[in-house]
Specification:
The chain is built from 22 helices and 12 strands. By secondary structure, it is α/β, with parallel strands linked by helices. An 8-stranded mixed sheet has the order 7-6-5-8-9-11-10-12, sandwiched between helices. Strands 1-2-3-4 form a 4-stranded antiparallel sheet, sandwiched between helices.
């Protein structure tokens, strides 16, 4: 019964912690355009409070007697109840001209700081209490850590598949607050059992002499916990930047991270750990050969599996070593304190350091190399180091010579790709030589990254809070099948615009905005009526839409990322804005907040172009958002949505809104009739208050506009409820 109470309390605490994390991430994401960096910043905040909670547990459990511990902790529990029910402060407005990282941290602190601090203290504090309680398993309470992580894992998986589809945000916050009150009662019950056991036995562990921990042991614990923490955020950023920013993918690395703790602190650790050490180089072979050297040859799902498998083996080896080196219960809270401090440091490296020193997500491969150095068996004597490094250095020299002697870069790329794949095979032969394995891996990854940078013809690349933005030069075939150079704008792997460089073609909108496509059809249909239109466009991209502007029109672009405005406005990369609408108004910040400040009935046309990447800002798609847009439109105004998306059927949401709000709606899923340079398939929806407004577009012969299909299996999206899974393709 005693074990059940402690296990249930730890399970409940961990569950609440990992329901709170995605819940408040969901609340903050809309205010910052759905950027993956919001989740990473939230993770750093959680890791920091987790460290503070572990520090608190360490201090009160090692310096105060049980009665004082219980009194102080009961006071902290009661104080935290004053912050219930959970809610964000009113009238929140993130900064528009500076990095919002510190704003997110402050918002989380005043919203959930104290309750999250309390749940973060539970794991180390209750395990320390259990070690004092006199149970037959008190000598090794680390098995309770597995129960805690099991609760974390179940909560993390339950949120997107059970909680979010069935509960609105208001219901989630209320339910969480009620369960938090239950947790406080459970913690007090555990404290009462400890107090009663101490009253019966007047001996305590504090009276026993403590064996001091060596600094080397503490540093070893630190790096074993730091590297997986940094890799967690690095991989999350990598797969959402360079693979796909699919929200559900963000929880997969964290799920594997938590699963590793469950396994390494279970009774199967001694059986599992040796196999993880053997499997790591084996999985590393195809991972290096294909994912870093030539990811284009792999299907997206296989590339993702390789990254996740390698990550899982890395954290299993590091956390397995942590579990193998766990100390006596005298040092239990110190052990957890160092682990939590390392987790916080790893998150800070990725959130506060890497974006300012790297223009790509390079911290991820660097931590992969660091993880290989943490394999057991590292020898740092001079002879061993030289023996393990000589081959990796030789590979580097040969690669540089091959590059310098190559007259044809494409031939060099082909040959070096083959060589690198063969060299990756040598990784397996170095599996027993820790330093050599890490050095050879580093050389292969370095070559791969440099070659990709050269091959992509990147003109400009910069990293901001919202991701990695790159302007690239690409060669395509023109109408006569002759090679032609164009510039393209990429955010991660999503193309956000392109421009042909011939002077007579620089004002021709391309990609999703081409003249044969839905946007071109709309402006052609209303060309005799739109001379004095006031037009707003949410999302800038390369600025192609600007070339539909007439001198007498008023255009305003709403863009959340200042770096996009900077890049699109630079004529070295794109000239749409400078040549077509040099006086267009630019509003930087969240579009919904910016539009709320505009006068009602201002716009004739409002274009929503914020959904082509996969980190969809769902707050721009709710019923309340649609009502806001129509409040800003004139009575005969048109609302146009660009809904081209690889993973989400956004037309379902808009169809439901049109039905619920009694709006006229047309859709066109455009496919080019003939192959034209940089004219691509694209999906657009237009809405208006009256069907007559859209009738000219529907009757035109310019495209296949038709009424929206009806969907009856979708719960309406509101500010209180959105569910990505319900529109997954």
């Amino acid at each position: 019964m005693l074990i059940i109470l402690f296990a249930v309390t730890l399970f409940t605490s961990a569950t609440l912690m990992f329901v709170m994390q995605p819940m408040f991430g969901k609340l903050l994401l809309p205010l910052l355009g759905g950027s993956p960096a919001v989740w990473n910043t939230c993770m750093v905040f959680y890791q920091t409070l987790l460290f503070l909670g572990y520090a608190y547990a360490h201090l009160i459990s090692t310096r105060w007697r049980v009665q004082k511990q219980l009194s102080v902790h009961a006071l902290v529990l009661l104080s935290s109840l004053s912050m219930l029910p959970l809610a964000l402060p009113e009238n929140l407005a993130p900064p528009t001209t500076s990095d919002p990282t510190l704003w997110i941290v402050w918002t989380l602190l005043i919203s959930i700081g104290l309750p999250f601090f309390v749940v973060s203290t539970t794991a180390p504090l209750l395990q320390k209490w259990f070690a004092h309680i006199g149970h037959q398993k008190s000598a090794d309470p680390y098995f309770l850590y597995a129960a805690s992580n099991a609760g974390s894992l179940i909560a993390l998986l339950s949120y997107p598949f059970i909680i979010e589809p069935n509960l609105g945000v208001a219901g989630q916050k209320l339910s969480w607050s009620i369960c938090y009150g239950v947790l406080c009662i459970l913690v007090l019950a555990c404290g009462y059992l400890l107090w009663r056991s101490q009253a019966q036995e007047q001996t305590s562990e504090e009276e026993l002499p403590l064996e001091p921990l060596a600094l080397a042991t503490k540093m070893h614990w630190l790096v074993l916990a730091l590297v997986p923490s940094s890799m967690l955020l690095g991989l999350t950023n990598f797969i959402s930047t360079d693979i796909a920013s699919v929200p559900l993918l963000w929880i997969i690395p964290l799920t594997l991270y938590l699963l590793s703790f469950i396994l390494v602190f279970s009774k199967w650790h001694d059986l599992i750990h040796p196999w993880m050490l053997k499997a790591q180089p084996v999985v590393l072979l195809p991972f290096l050969s294909f994912s870093f050297i030539n990811p284009a040859v792999l299907p997206y799902w296989l590339d993702l599996i390789l990254h996740l498998s390698s990550f899982f083996l890395v954290v299993m080896v590091c956390h397995g070593e942590l579990a193998r080196l766990r100390p006596h219960t005298q040092h239990l809270t110190t052990y957890y304190l160092i682990m939590s401090f390392a987790g916080m440091l790893g998150g800070m490296v990725n959130t506060f350091v890497a974006p300012f020193i790297f223009n790509g997500v390079y911290e991820y491969p660097l931590m992969l190399i660091a993880a290989l150095l943490l394999r057991p068996g590292l020898q740092l004597d001079r002879v061993s180091v030289m023996q393990q490094l000589w081959f990796a250095l030789l590979v580097l020299v040969v690669g540089v010579i091959a590059y310098l002697s190559s007259d044809n870069l494409l031939e060099y790329l082909d040959s070096i790709g083959v060589v690198l794949i063969l060299l990756a095979g040598l990784v397996f032969s170095f599996r027993q030589q820790v330093l050599g394995l890490a050095a050879l891996t580093g050389v292969i990854i370095l070559f791969a990254l440099l070659l990709h940078q050269l091959f992509s013809n990147t003109l400009y690349q910069e990293r901001s809070f919202f991701g990695v933005l790159a302007a690239r030069e690409t060669v395509i075939a023109d109408e006569q099948q002759r090679p032609e150079t164009v510039h393209e704008l990429y955010h991660g792997t999503t193309k956000h615009g392109a421009q042909r460089l011939a002077p007579e073609l620089q004002t021709t909108p391309l990609t999703y905005y081409s003249r044969p496509g839905p946007m071109g059809q709309l402006f052609e249909t209303f060309k005799d009526l739109d001379d004095n239109w006031v037009i707003g466009s949410v999302g800038l991209g390369a600025g192609a839409l600007a070339c539909y502007a007439k001198p007498s029109q008023q255009w305003t672009f709403y863009e959340i990322d200042p770096l996009v405005v900077k890049t699109a406005s630079n004529p070295k990369y794109f000239t749409y804005l400078s040549r077509c609408t040099p006086k267009a108004n630019m509003q930087i910040g969240d579009a919904r907040l910016s539009l709320a400040q505009e006068p009602d009935a201002k716009f004739d046309l409002l274009i929503m172009d914020a959904f082509s990447s996969d980190a969809v800002p769902t707050h721009l798609l709710t019923q309340e958002a649609i009502k806001l847009y129509f409040a800003k439109l004139k009575p005969e105004g048109v609302l146009a949505f660009h809904i081209t998306n690889r993973h989400l059927a956004l037309k379902k949401v808009l169809s439901d809104h049109a039905q619920q709000l009694h709006l006229a709606a047309l859709i066109q899923e455009y496919q080019p009739a003939t192959e034209m340079p940089l004219v691509v398939a694209t999906d657009w929806v237009v809405l208006s208050r009256n069907a007559a407004t859209l009738l000219p577009l529907e009757q035109s012969r310019l495209g296949s506009w038709h009424k929206m299909p009806l969907y009856f299996d979708l719960k309406p999206w509101t500010d209180d409820f959105t569910n990505i899974i319900s529109i997954w393709k």
